[in-house]
Structures are given as C-alpha cells and as structure tokens.
Design a protein that fits this description.
This protein is mainly alpha-helical. The protein folds into three domains: 42 residues, no CATH class; 66 residues; 39 residues. The chain starts with 46 loop residues before the first helix and ends with a helix.
C-alpha cells in the first residue's frame, strides 16, 4: 500500500491502517469507515455513571441511618440497589462501584431495619408497663426538685407523675 497523503487508509498521524478504517474516532469524511459521516463517535458506557450513582447513594444510606432514620435510608438504599443492577446492562458482572454501592445500601437498610425494630420494641415495652413509667416520673420529679429547689408542679403546673397517670389512665 502506498504512503502518500491521498491514501484513504492513512490516519491523521501518518501511519498506514491495514484494516482500511480511520481510527481517530471520527470518520474524517472517508467513504470506507464503519460510521456514516453524520454520526458522532460512539459514546461511553452509560453503566459507569449509574454505578457511580449507586456507590454514592449506597454510601449515603449508612450515615442517614444514624441521623435521619426510617425513610431516607430505605429510599437511598433501594435507589442504590436499583442503579447498581441497571448499570450491569447486558454484562454478566457488576462493576466495582456498583458492587460497593449495593453492599453499602444493603448494610444501610439492614442497620436501619434493626434500629427501627429496637425503637418499636422499646416503645411498646415502655407503654405496656405503666408502673415503670410512674416510677420514672417520680424519679424525674425528685431530680427536678433537688436540682432547682422548686417542685415540678410549680414549673409545669402538674407533676410528671400526674401527667403519666393522665396518659395511662390508671
């Protein structure tokens, strides 16, 4: 093959291409390129952006479990898992960012579910034991009176013990 400047197999760097295609990503107007002249070069893989989004959302689902529990970690975690699965596309494996995002999202949602269970158990346990609540209110009344020298009735209008009795109707 000739190495002159009119050779269509010659790329812009001056090297001869044996396959006949211009390898600069654009067709350069040559008629023997794999892409028609009105199309841009092929774009990058969209899964990279989705796997990065999955990683960010998965990592954010963990601290939101501690600071904004219940709803936000589940929303962020489920979006992270969704983006991680969508970033896979037709390939057989997840990328590293997608794996990190899915694992962090699963951890965040698991910790959030465990904390929610602990909160619910504690709340219903305390509500089911009115004697414990009355004793706690008496301790609170005594502590306020010792610290400030004024009974709780003078501060709030009624004692905490009376408030608990009104709340639990016993």
């Amino acid at each position: 093959m000739e190495m002159n400047e009119n050779n269509p197999n010659r790329n812009p760097n001056g090297y001869n291409n044996p396959n006949g295609y211009n390898n600069n990503g654009y067709n350069g107007g040559s008629s023997n390129t794999p892409y028609p002249s009105n199309y841009p070069p092929p774009a990058g893989h969209l899964g990279n952006n989705m796997s990065t989004a999955a990683m960010i959302l998965g990592i954010l689902s963990i601290p939101t479990t501690l600071f904004l529990p219940v709803y936000l970690p589940f929303i962020l975690g489920s979006l992270a898992v969704l983006f991680a699965l969508l970033s896979k596309g037709r390939s057989l494996k997840l990328s590293g960012n997608a794996k990190i995002g899915a694992i962090c999202a699963t951890v965040g949602m698991g910790v959030n579910a465990a904390l929610f269970g602990i909160y619910a158990f504690t709340f219903f346990t305390l509500l089911s034991q009115p004697d414990f609540m009355r004793d706690t209110a008496q301790m609170y009344d005594n502590m306020i009176e010792q610290m400030y020298g004024v009974p709780t009735e003078d501060i709030f209008g009624e004692s905490m013990e009376d408030m608990m009795e009104d709340l639990f109707l016993y």
